[in-house]
Amino acid sequence: MTTKVQRVLVSGGGISGLAVAAGLARCGIAVDIIEARSDLAIAGIGISVPNNALRMLKNLGVLDDCLAAGYVFDEYVRCDAAGERIVALPCPESSDGVPGYLGLTRARFADILRAAATTAGAKLGLGVTIEDFTEDAGAARVSLSDGRQAEYDLVVGCEGLRSSLRTRLFGAAADPVFTGYACWRAKPLIERRVSAMTKFAGATTDAGLVPITDDEMYLFHVTAEPGNPYHEPSSWRDLLGQRLEEYTGVIADVRDNLPAASEIVYSPLFEVHLPRPWHTDRAVVIGDAAHAVVPHLSQGGAQSLEDAVVLAEELTRRPLAEALPAFMKRRFDRARHVQQLSSTALIREMAGQHAGDLSREMASTREYLDLPV
Question: CATH number of the domain at 7-71+102-176+271-348, please?
């Protein structure tokens, strides 16, 4: 393993998979992407993209496309359950002009990343999974569900929470851990009412609105769901409405204009704590497969993008045997710290975080995320 990688298999067509494929293919590395789904229809609603993630998108050459597709804003607003403002915190742009925050639809974001990867030369195969994996000093050898057998210099697992490659490599020790909470998401049937990420503090819940286009916004609502109960999807609209009953003002308007149950997304919140290293000699897992994080600092997709960009940088700078440890050195502590910050934010917000403490916490978090990746 004294030469740089030339051929890579990326397993998973989500944020981290498409981003790392784009980064590698832009540097001339042959990349195959496989995705278990037979289509790339996106179930999510919207996504909040903070400044540290936007810097990664600039590195990948897609920042302008993302900015054109979404809604740029530069502050974080905290309100009470009636919509009265408690505090507004700035999200300033970077010294190189990258904005503070962006909201956009998940479908458009996925389209942009997919186009970046395939335009750079990555090949995408749908409905395909890894059936068998072995590795030795010469290659990573995979058998795929479509009957193909192939050899690669490296396999990158970007399969999310339930990563089969992670389990294959590291066993069940890093299986997802339920946090006790869940997030409801929906695009309300009314025009945008906020111009920045705006959170509303209930007594025991947390709701928020994020602008994603000039006309649209999406709702997220975090609730305690002890024991991770199953909720029949056909009931999601009614259940979400019930969980929003304590709110007045703009959230009440949203509650009265929820879409059909089929247009609502319900996601139990899990974390993944994969110990270092996240790799063997010829395989590595990144993104949610390695360090799934709760969404309270908008860092799930952001940390996946940081993984992707850093891994692509290291793989194109140095031989594989050096690149993977270098990747871990740059990413493990940062990802773990962001995971802890996000978990703390979840607990404190659900307990009714005092505005002054929130201001200090957000400022400290922003300073940390401003550090080079």
Answer: 3.50.50.60
